[in-house]
Amino acid sequence: SNITSSGLQNHEMAFKGKAVDSKTVLFNLLLCLLIFYSLFYMIGSVCFGAFRLDHFDGLIPFDFKTEPAESNSKYLVNLLSLELTYFCSGLLFAAVVRRRVWDYALTVTLLHVMITSLVMLEFPMVWQWWLALGSGLFLMICNGQLIAYFTCQSDQSYASFSIY
């Protein structure tokens, strides 16, 4: 009976820990989404100004319909904004979540695809957009995980470059 009660206590403690964890995860996810879209609009507006476009498109994070051509300034602004947002987000996600940057990066990207589909009322079928999104995600995961690894290296609980 002694073994059962201590086993039950451990189980209850693990359960309580998990409940707190899910709140933290949800908070971090919302924070990451806020960071992602804030950065997207800030970087988008800087790129917009740099390329001297005449009309700032509020749909910049969701626009996959712009003609993908090197001569199209609006397309270049969208592409540059996307890549720079993903790059910078990875660095900031590492500061916020400290671990599992890859997990938050994937989740934010999946949510971004869903939000994009809702905003544009169409699922993105443009392969150039998916390629840009994929390379951005790769950048975000790589630099985010590296930052997290080097900043948490002194932390004993951060095992040597494990993905959990």
From TrEMBL:
The chain crosses the membrane at residues 25-51, 75-97, 104-121, 127-150. It comes from the Eukaryota. Keywords: Membrane, Transmembrane, Transmembrane helix. The keyword Membrane applies. It is found in: Membrane. One of its GO terms (cellular component) is membrane. It holds the Pfam family SYS1. The keyword Signal does not apply. It is a multi-pass membrane protein. PANTHER family: SYS1, TRANSMEMBRANE PROTEIN 244. This is Transmembrane protein 244. It comes from Lates calcarifer (Barramundi). The lineage of its organism: Eukaryota, Metazoa, Chordata, Craniata, Vertebrata.
